[in-house]
Amino acid sequence: MAAPTHPLMPHATAAWLVDNSGLTFDQIATFCGLHILEVQAIADDTAATKLTGRDPIRNGELTQEELDRGQANPDYALKLSRQPEQSRRTTGPRYTPVSKRQDKPKGILWVVKNHPEITDNQISKLIGTTKTTIAAIRDKTHWDYANLTPIDPVTLGLTSQREMDALVASAAKKAGIDTSPDLGKLGEDRAALVAELQAERVAAAAAAEAALSGEVRSEPTTALERGEALFRK
Q: What's the domain range around 168?
């Protein structure tokens, strides 16, 4: 990933620099990655919304020494010190958008029905829900249980297919469930299918050859044909 070249919140940073520095509009625009007219609008308070300034020095994106160099030389281009890392969730339940939260019980029900080996704790981390809700769905005491339809949480957008597959494999391993395919059974099924297809091809070839040569079957093969033969007799 390429190194960032502009502040995390460019408009708010520009607003702070306009109010708290002697930089030119061109310097501010270059540093923040904005058009100079945007900076002019911020300075003139003609922007659609009055911005709250964001101090780039306090946030580690600009040093005081760098700001002083810029103020001393109008042609100097400020350099970004570092891009502050965005906060990342390391603990706690998975965040789910409000629009999808009502779908969680459907996803929980699907997991409970299709993968009983997955524990409540694992479901809680996968979907981002509480163990109380999972328990209520398991024992059918959830307030809306009668209206719930089990739907794959991947389809609902509550998790990714990769996470789901990894969890299923992990839970199956802990539960001692063998998820490897039965190679012997697969071989038998494949052989039977090949034989069936070969028989169909042979029959089709024979029928085509008979039709081309004008041959007529000597013996009736269907109930209707046998009935017609008896009638003719």
A: 98-174
Rg (CA), the chain: 36
Question: Which is nearest to 127 in space by CA: 145, 101, 146, 91?
Answer: 101
Please, which residues have CB within 8 angstroms of residue 142's CB and are 6 or more apart in sequence? Answer: 105, 133, 136, 148
Tell me: do 108 and 58 sit in the same domain.
no
Q: Which of 174, 189, 218 is the last residue of a domain?
A: 174
Tokens of 3: 């190194």
Does 205 map to a domain?
A: no
Query: How many CB atoms within 10 Å of residue 210?
Result: 12
What confidence tens digit (pLDDT) does each residue in 189-205 have? 667 776 777 777 777 77
Which pTM does this prediction carry? 0.39
At 128, give phi and psi (nearest 5°).
80, 60
Q: With CA atoms as reference, report the closest residue to 58 among 13, 26, 22.
A: 13
**What domain count does the chain have?**
2
